[in-house]
Amino acid sequence: MTERNAKEQVRGWKNRDSIGPRSDSEVNKEIGKTDEMRAYASFSNIGKTPRRLSAFRESGLKSIDEEEGEEDEKVVMCTDDDDDHSSQNADVDPIIRDLFSVYFVTNEKDDDSLNNNTNHGIRERGIRGLLALFSPIAFAESMNATMPWLPSKINESFPLPRLFLFLEWNLRSIGQVFFCNNPMSGFFILIGLFIQSTRVAVHGVIALMAGNLAAIALGFDTGLIASGLFGYNSVLVGLAIATFHSPEKNDGYEFPIVAFSIIISILSVAFFAGVGKILAPYSTPPLTIPFNLATHLFLLATSSMSNVSMGAVIPPSLPEYIVGDDGQDLIDAKAFFSGVLRGISQVFLANDMVSGALCLAGLFVCSRYIAIAAFTGSLLGCAFAVLLGTSNDSVEQGLYGYSSSLTLAAMIVFYVPSISCIVMGIIAVLLTVIAQHALSGLMLPLGLPVMTSPFCLVTLLFLLFQGTTTAVIAVPLPSITIPEDHVRRVTLLRRGFRFLLDAIRSDKYSKNIRMSLNAKKSIRLLSEATKNVTVKDIDVSDKTDKITRVAITCFKTIDLIDSGSISKEIFLDFLRSLHRDEGTGLQNAGEAFSLMDFHGNDSMSLAEFVSFVKVSHQLDIIKKKIANFLYFVHGSTNDHYFDFNELNSALKFLELPALGEEEHHVL
Question: pLDDT tens, 366-378?
Answer without folding.
Answer: 999 999 999 999 9
